[in-house]
């Protein structure tokens, strides 16, 4: 059923846009550019959505906190800082995703290194070091923005708000591969993640090499988040609410939660992007605004319904 | 009976603070060993190092004449199962999913549980009387029911040794007895060796074949309840006055607490 929804949303995403065209016009040769642009956006929506949801599930599992989201450990600030530095040193715009990705990667490395005490990384210290490193990097980001005379810098806040605009097909393929690898890793370790989300001691007594699995999953989630942020900016909320909603419907088993969240989150992001392009054309509403405005109420409704069932 | 676990002169601890100091003893196959002692005497630390979670800084623990810490995690998880004091569930797993996690040591990643895996989990739930809760969410259950599910998960591992760390301290007397009766039954019928940390001296006296009394990180006494639970020993180690008499039904020592502090 999720697949049918996904296919439907792909069609919707391709057929609607600021330029009004019906399907036959869209597939005619003179509009081939628009068609390609829309297909690329839909694909980006699918992989970014799937990636964010899976990264969310991983962080929620290893931090044992269902409120964790892909940006909780400061990845977004690191990526933002990377992007700002690229602009600050007047690098060409096409380097921006690269430096953003490096920034994200470096942040996760620092966060992990700080949290590591005696060879063990507790979820508590990971969370703390993530929040602190994130805060420091956001301040640095603002510092560089404020001292720069470069006008483009002020566009950075806009970039950070998130968009599914595709600048380069090569980039799309690149992050697509990285995200796909990340998702496969998550599915491979889904059972171990179940055990770790019960508790690290419990997982240890079930024969799992907890520190190693956590490290691999952490790298996978960072890779996914970094890839998404460097191309799409920060699309909030998706990585938090989609896995949560899936858990409310299908239970907590990550072997189901991971693939189900990936598919439904992809669907959700394609639809949200379609709305962001078509609601008030030619203005494009930041997709993060749409995801929060739609996702929030749906989530509240689900939560209320679930809680009522208890009493 | 052959020695199952041999503890030779181990010292253990966190950072630079040693909790256990040159502890040595043996555990025989099929034994029901209780570990008792005041707070901070090293009970949990000892249980951790016995259960392959905390490598001793000095000394050796042998399991089947093999260094315990040279055996891999997965291998040991097929022989050892651990029941903690309580487990916090942040995610709404069903009881069935939790019980089935006990099969993890036997499965490769991505491998689907076979029919026999499912049957083993089902059987553990039957033994622990949790079948009726099968599709309920674990975090909706009472503390007693939860602990039964955790034991079901442990049994699904098909352990040869069952470790329990104060498994009954949050429970009412009904559940305390229910759980300890179950553990005793497993020990007798399935020949599972039991190593249990208990706070309640009377429960330890009733259920354990052998009691190990820890005091300040060292073995104070080890032996049957009658030998270990004498009023001199208890007053010395716990620094409080007690009266020890005989439980009229079982004949085991029974400890009464007295209000007056030891002079």
Q: Main attributes?
A:
heterodimer, A: mainly alpha, 76% helix, B: 263 residues, alpha/beta, 9 helices, 12 strands, globular
Blueprint of the fold:
The complex is a heterodimer of chains A (311) and B (263).
Chain A: H1 2-15, H2 23-26, H3 32-62, H4 75-88, H5 96-115, E1 116-117, E2 120-121, H6 123-147, H7 155-161, H8 169-188, H9 190-198, H10 200-205, H11 210-232, H12 238-250, H13 254-278, H14 287-310
Antiparallel strand pairs in A: 1-2
Chain B: E1 3-14, E2 17-28, E3 32-36, H1 43-50, E4 58-63, E5 66-67, H2 73-77, E6 80-83, H3 95-100, H4 115-127, H5 143-156, E7 161-165, H6 173-189, E8 193-197, H7 201-207, E9 210-215, E10 218-223, H8 225-228, H9 231-238, E11 242-246, E12 253-257
Helix pairs in contact in B: 4-5
Structure overview:
The complex is a heterodimer of chains A (311) and B (263). Chain A has 311 residues and is mainly alpha-helical. Chain A has 14 helices and two strands, in the order H-H-H-H-H-E-E-H-H-H-H-H-H-H-H-H. Chain A has a two-stranded antiparallel ribbon. In chain A, helix 1 (2-15) packs antiparallel against helix 3 (32-62) and helix 4 crosses helix 5 (96-115). The longest helix of chain A is centred in the N-terminal third of the chain and has 31 residues, at 32-62. Chain A is globular. The two termini of chain A are 30 Å apart. In chain A, 50% of the residues are buried. The mean pLDDT of chain A is 84. Chain B has 263 residues and is an alpha/beta fold. Chain B is built from nine helices and twelve strands. Chain B has a six-stranded mixed beta sheet with strand order 6-7-8-3-9-10, with helices on both faces. A four-stranded antiparallel beta sheet of chain B has the order 2-1-4-5, with helices on one face. In chain B, helix 4 packs across helix 5. Chain B is globular and about 55 Å long. The model of chain B has no long low-confidence stretch (mean pLDDT 91). At the A-B interface, helix 9 and helix 10 of A face helix 2 and strand 6 of B.
């Amino acid at each position: 059923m999720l697949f049918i929804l996904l296919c439907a949303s792909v069609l919707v995403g391709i057929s609607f846009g600021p330029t009004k065209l019906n399907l036959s016009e869209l597939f005619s040769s003179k509009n081939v550019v628009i068609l390609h642009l829309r297909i690329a956006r839909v694909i980006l929506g699918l992989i970014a959505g799937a990636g964010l949801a899976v990264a969310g599930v991983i962080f929620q599992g290893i931090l044992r906190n269902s409120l964790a989201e892909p940006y909780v450990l400061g990845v977004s600030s690191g990526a933002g800082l990377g992007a700002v530095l690229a602009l600050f040193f007047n690098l060409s715009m096409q380097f921006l995703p690269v430096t953003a990705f490096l920034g994200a990667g470096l942040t996760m490395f620092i966060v992990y290194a700080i949290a590591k005490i005696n060879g063990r990384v507790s979820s508590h210290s990971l969370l703390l070091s993530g929040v602190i490193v994130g805060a420091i990097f956001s301040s640095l980001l603002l510092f560089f923005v404020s001292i720069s005379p470069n006008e483009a810098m002020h566009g950075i806040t806009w970039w950070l708000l998130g968009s599914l605009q595709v600048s380069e097909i090569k980039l799309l393929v690149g992050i697509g591969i990285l995200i796909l690898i990340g998702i496969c890793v998550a599915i491979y370790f889904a059972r171990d993640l179940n055990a770790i989300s019960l508790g690290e001691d419990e997982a240890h007594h079930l024969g799992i090499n907890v520190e190693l699995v956590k490290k691999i999953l952490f790298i996978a989630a960072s890779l996914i988040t970094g890839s998404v942020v460097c191309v799409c900016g920060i699309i909030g909320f998706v990585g938090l609410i989609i896995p949560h909603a899936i858990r409310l419907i299908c239970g907590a088993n990550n072997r189901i939660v991971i693939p189900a969240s990936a598919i439904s989150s992809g669907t959700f992001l394609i639809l949200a992007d379609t709305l962001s392009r078509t609601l008030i054309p030619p203005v494009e509403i930041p997709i993060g605004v749409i995801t929060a405005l739609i996702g929030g109420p749906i989530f509240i409704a689900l939560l209320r319904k679930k809680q009522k069932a208890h009493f | 009976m052959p020695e199952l676990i041999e503890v030779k002169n181990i010292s253990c601890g966190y950072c630079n603070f040693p909790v256990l100091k040159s502890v040595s003893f043996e555990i025989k196959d099929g034994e029901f060993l209780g570990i008792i002692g005041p707070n901070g005497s090293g009970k949990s630390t000892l249980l951790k190092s016995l259960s392959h979670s905390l490598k001793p800084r000095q000394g050796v623990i042998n399991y089947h004449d093999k260094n315990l810490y040279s055996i891999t995690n997965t291998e040991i998880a097929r022989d050892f199962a651990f029941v903690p004091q309580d487990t916090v569930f942040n995610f709404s797993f069903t009881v069935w999913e939790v019980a089935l996690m006990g099969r993890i040591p036997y499965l490769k990643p991505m491998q689907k549980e076979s029919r026999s895996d499912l049957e083993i989990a089902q059987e553990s739930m039957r033994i622990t009387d949790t079948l009726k809760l099968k599709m309920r969410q674990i975090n909706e259950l009472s503390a007693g029911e939860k602990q039964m599910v955790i034991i079901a998960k442990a049994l699904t591992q098909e352990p040869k040794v069952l470790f329990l760390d104060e498994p009954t301290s949050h429970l009412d007397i009904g559940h305390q007895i229910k759980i300890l009766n179950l553990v005793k039954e497993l020990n007798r019928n399935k020949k599972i060796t039991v190593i249990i940390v208990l706070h309640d001296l009377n429960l330890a006296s009733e259920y354990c074949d052998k009691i190990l009394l820890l005091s300040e990180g060292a073995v104070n006494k080890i032996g049957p309840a009658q030998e270990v639970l004498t009023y001199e020993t208890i007053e010395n180690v716990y620094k409080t006055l007690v009266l020890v008499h005989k439980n009229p039904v079982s004949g085991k020592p029974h400890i009464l607490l007295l209000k007056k502090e030891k002079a």
